[in-house]
């Protein structure tokens, strides 16, 4: 049995894109991946349209409460293998030192959380969902267990660039 890989999807608010990413990694990873999400400045609540979007697609909702980055890098927390930032501000922030030296990549996705009116917000969440789903499927199609960290980083960047 191969070790389950741990993924962290990181955003500033941890209410929309990172929640979608966590749920999609766990769902599509089918036991191969264990995903978490966190925010450097969590909003304190998950956007209800994020949950609605996941339910619409039959993706199980994330079970963990919103997390602050510090909670997922403290002693005793799972070793993170990959970190994906999904918003520009999280990509530019100073991140904590990760003892496991995970592979990092930036997959910028436009923020759907503040789009108005509500129907336009729902469509923006659908777009974000599809973009994340496409990238995560491409990432999971790789032989992650046998690739070097450098090769994975290059491939994750190429996945993002191909999707833009």
Automatic annotation (TrEMBL):
Residue ranges the record marks as coiled coil: none
Transmembrane segments annotated in the record for this chain: none
UniProt record, GO biological process: response to arsenic-containing substance
SUPFAM superfamilies, A to Z: Phosphotyrosine protein phosphatases I
Pfam families found in the cross-reference section: LMWPc
Gene3D superfamilies: 3.40.50.2300
CDD domains assigned: LMWP_ArsC (cd16345)
Keyword terms, alphabetized: Arsenical resistance
Domain of life: Bacteria
Residues in Phosphotyrosine protein phosphatase I domain copies: 5-142
InterPro entries (UniProt xref): Ptyr_pPase (IPR023485), Ptyr_pPase_sf (IPR036196)
Protein name: Arsenate reductase ArsC
Organism expressing this protein natively: Candidatus Proximibacter danicus
């Amino acid at each position: 049995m191969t070790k389950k890989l741990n993924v962290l999807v990181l955003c500033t608010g941890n209410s929309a894109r990172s929640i979608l990413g966590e749920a999609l990694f766990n769902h599509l990873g089918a036991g191969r991946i264990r995903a978490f999400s966190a925010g450097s400045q969590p909003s304190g609540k998950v956007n209800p349209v994020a949950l609605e979007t996941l339910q619409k697609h039959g993706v199980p909702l994330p079970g963990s409460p919103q997390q602050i980055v510090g909670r997922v890098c403290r002693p005793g927390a799972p070793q993170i293998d990959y970190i994906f930032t999904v918003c520009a501000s999280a990509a530019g922030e100073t991140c904590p030192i990760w003892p496991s030296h995970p592979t990092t990549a930036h997959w910028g996705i436009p923020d759907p959380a503040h789009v108005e009116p509500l129907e336009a917000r729902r469509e923006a969440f659908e777009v974000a969902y599809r973009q994340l789903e496409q990238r995560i499927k491409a990432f999971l199609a790789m032989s992650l267990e046998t690739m070097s960290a450098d090769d994975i980083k290059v491939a994750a960047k190429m996945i993002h660039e191909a999707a833009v």
